[in-house]
């Protein structure tokens, strides 16, 4: 099945399935029913079955899912059966934290190139990677064959960073800058915006100023993609 035929919201849930399944495997659990998996995730078994049905038949009637097989399959579907090199643009407070975070490597991502604008940052070395000037983004990304970029620059520099990454061949961007980027077709983006997430949480801390019925649930999510937008206290925590 072509990538485009599967709803993006389903793709967003797959990493959470893998993470949960890995936890089960580490606990020595070999097989799991969709009901049991649903309990771990705080979603319905029907949703899990529906999501997985996009990719084929994984469970056996009455036997549930083979945990290791399902991990392998979802890992293959997400192309996580390899290490992906990532270009990081912005080596400020956030960029440095990202560059030093070792957890990405465990999950198949290697910060392979780092760029910044500030001469004080250029030339620094993190895990063997030298911080390069931003004017080299396009050429280095192209020569290295890097397809994923992380943007950790101020909002007013983010579009330029995206354009440079894309010019070098990047096709997937994780954007931390609080700005909407204009992207050409064929480029995928995820945004991480803690401030707006916090701002949307404060809605629930006081009585609602507008009737609940005016809001349509499920359009924006942070904790569990596509369920109820995290509107129910105690719903799935990633
Ligand atoms: N720090 C956080 O906790 C946090 C949290 C959420 C979102 N963000 C967002 O992440 C981004 C970075 O935040 P920060 O706190 O690290 O900022 P920062 O000012 O500490 O770092 C930004 C870095 O980007 C570099 N830069 C500026 N223009 C550039 C360009 N054109 N090309 C390459 N590098 C360039 C700067 O030299 C600097 O090193 C911002 O958009 C911010 O809103 C930060």
From TrEMBL:
A Gene Ontology BP annotation from the UniProt entry: negative regulation of DNA-templated transcription
Molecular function terms from GO: DNA binding; DNA-binding transcription factor activity
GO cellular component terms, A-Z: cytoplasm
CoA-binding domain span: 79-180
Domain of life (superkingdom): Bacteria
InterPro entries cross-referenced by the UniProt entry: CoA-bd (IPR003781), NAD(P)-bd_dom_sf (IPR036291), Rex_actinobacterial-type (IPR058236), Rex_DNA-bd_C_dom (IPR009718), Tscrpt_rep_Rex (IPR022876), WH-like_DNA-bd_sf (IPR036388), WH_DNA-bd_sf (IPR036390)
Residue ranges the record marks as coiled coil: none
SMART domains listed in its UniProt record: CoA_binding (SM00881)
Keyword set includes DNA-binding: yes
DNA-binding region: 16-55
UniProt KW keywords: Cytoplasm, DNA-binding, NAD, Repressor, Transcription, Transcription regulation
Entry binding sites for NAD(+): 90-95
Locations listed in the record: Cytoplasm
PANTHER family: REDOX-SENSING TRANSCRIPTIONAL REPRESSOR REX, REDOX-SENSING TRANSCRIPTIONAL REPRESSOR REX 1
Subunit note: Homodimer.
Classification via NCBIfam families: PRK05472.1-3, PRK05472.2-1, PRK05472.2-2, PRK05472.2-3, PRK05472.2-4, PRK05472.2-5
Family: Belongs to the transcriptional regulatory Rex family.
Physiological role: Modulates transcription in response to changes in cellular NADH/NAD(+) redox state.
Name listed for the protein in its UniProt record: Redox-sensing transcriptional repressor Rex
Organism: Thermalbibacter longus
Gene from which the chain derives: rex
């Amino acid at each position: 099945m072509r990538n485009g035929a599967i709803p993006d919201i389903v793709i967003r849930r797959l990493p959470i399935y893998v993470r949960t399944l890995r936890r089960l495997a580490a606990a020595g659990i070999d097989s799991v029913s969709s009901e049991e998996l649903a309990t771990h995730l705080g979603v319905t078994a029907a949703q899990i079955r529906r999501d997985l049905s996009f990719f084929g038949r994984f469970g056996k009637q009455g036997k549930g899912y083979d945990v290791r097989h399902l991990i392998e399959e979802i890992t293959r579907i997400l192309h996580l059966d390899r290490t992906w090199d990532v270009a990081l643009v912005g080596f400020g407070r956030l960029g440095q934290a990202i560059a030093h975070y070792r957890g990405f490597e465990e999950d198949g991502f290697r910060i392979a190139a780092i760029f910044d604008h500030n001469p004080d940052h250029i030339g620094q070395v993190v895990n063997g990677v030298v911080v390069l000037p931003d004017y080299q983004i396009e050429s280095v990304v192209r020569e290295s064959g890097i397809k994923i970029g992380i943007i950790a620059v101020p909002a007013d520099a983010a579009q330029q960073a995206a354009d440079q990454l894309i010019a070098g061949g990047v096709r997937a961007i994780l954007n931390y800058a609080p700005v909407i980027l204009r992207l050409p077709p064929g480029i995928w983006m995820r945004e991480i915006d803690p401030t707006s997430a916090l701002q949307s949480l404060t809605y629930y801390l006081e009585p609602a100023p507008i009737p609940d019925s005016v809001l349509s649930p499920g359009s924006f999510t942070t904790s569990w993609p596509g369920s109820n937008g995290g509107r129910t206290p105690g719903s799935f925590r990633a």
